[in-house]
Sequence to fold (611 residues):
Amino acid sequence: MMPSRARTASAKSRGRGSESRLAYLFLAPMLAIFVGFYVWPALATLSSSFFTWGMLNPWRVDRPDLWVSAGVSNYTTTLTSADFWNAGLNTAVWLFVFPVLVVTISLALSLLMWEAKRGAGFFRSAIIVPMTISLAAVGVIWGFVYNPNPDKGLLNAGLRLIGVGNADLTLGPLELHLGRWLSNPGVLHIGGLDVRLTNIMIIIPAVWAFVGFGVITFTAGLTSVPAELLEAARVDGASRWQTIRHVTLPSLRPSVIVVVVISVIFALRTFDIVFVTTGGGPAQDTEVLGLLLWQQAFQFLDSPRAGQAAAIAIIMSVVLIAGAMPFLRKNGASS
Amino acid sequence: MRSQWRTLALYAVLTLVSIVWIVPVLGAAAIAILPLDQSTKGWWRADASTATLANFRRVWEGGLSGYALNSLIIAVLSVLITLAVGTLAAYAIARMRFRFRTIVQVMLLTTMIVPVQIILIPLIPWFRTLGLNSGSWQYLGIALVHTAFGAGWAIFMLSSFFEAIPNELIEAAKLDGASSLKTFTTIALPLAIPGIVSFVIIDFVFVWNDLLMGLTLLDADHRPMTVGLANLNAPQLNQDDLISAGSILAILPPLLLFALLNRYYVRGLFAGAVKG
Fold:
């Protein structure tokens, strides 16, 4: 049916109207799935965030007789709860530390590999391999590295080798407990805030897995640095560092933006690796918003807190869309 | 002289970093092939002659094979559906002019940004309404969610491959009287195949590695390998041998795809990177 219709359409006229119709025909299957399994559930999350309900008796659009209105109380309860701000602080640590580490490490490595030329492919492969590993498996694999028993965990074996063992250190505002990587590695006191370093210990494996993406993106960026500029810098007698600082890095700006945006998105979604390594603990030291929301909706099915979970989802999405809008707009306009 | 030292330092740093990057995986692999009484002494000190595949057999027969099958079905189904509807949509966006083009594109691209968590909660009652919550229908349900949530990525990648096709080829086909669908299937699709291969690999790895959706939307008999791995990972059970063997088995398919089709994998990400 579709081919004959398309043929007559293109045979009759190549006018704008028929091309439009054809485009929508091509788009229809994707849009149907998109509306059914993304737009509709997202709208349901939004509307259900104004009602009180739990997973045992889910909020349903077709049963208004069962609705228990909550007004904006799911939002006010969420925004005034200590759990939310604790998870929010941990997510903020992710949002800051993760992109910074990913960008600096992958940028440094890309520049080094660029300098190396010969053998760069081998080194690049070693860095990219962890990218293919699921974060659930990354958590498991790093669980072995972090094992507190110095007979099993590589890090503590290293500490024992240099004779440090489980030392406690205090460096200004930084309190460190070496050897207890996932239970209590330390605290950073900034003013009245206590930032638990356990988050950093979970961020590190995620960075390890993600740096490959940065390296690929920066390598692509490096190939597009104009050769004339590099040549001009060489002729002017610029040192290698000056060339990198004044020619290479400025040309890499678009790549840096891509890596920052994608790693910020990734950091806000964080769920898998926390779920597998610590489950948000000890206490709630590594609880992040993506996990808190899931626990509120699904861990205690009989609790009527799914509305609050929906409110958290909406708050997260609003923050992300607001932050990413400039990037989206640029992308939509450029192609 | 100075530049020689520089080169030496450069390669030393790169070698060191590569080792740091590989060691965690090597450690897990070593624990996986050692009997438990060897690996608990430290895998780096173990007697290599005790290496065995027994752990893999035990974890596979102990239930991981079921999870692996689920992962395979979910990943293949998701990739097929995404490819079928994604290539059509990406072609329309890359090659056709229509009124709401930018809006449609931006809407689809939001799936790359918004956290999955925003759709998760209502999906459970929604699956029940649609009858996608029981038996093998769950595979279709989660595949459709993966398709919807992969829409942005599919459009982002695939449309850049369709845009790269020279205009003359498309116009020539049209002048020969080929319909748009025919132009799409006989000219555009074959030319985009390298790009499509890249997309298939990346989408497969992405779906294979999902934990959150599989954990939330499926019942215990249909959950993927990532969930199986999370269930194994209970430190108090002292089963490092099984956990490590399970993790190696779970990372093997994406790793093999990467090893065999490295070029396509990297090119796919390049395409995304360059376009951004």
Q: What stands out?
A: The mean pLDDT of chain B is 88. The longest helix of chain B spans residues 54-95. Residues 62-275 of chain B form a domain with the MetI-like fold fold (CATH 1.10.3720.10).
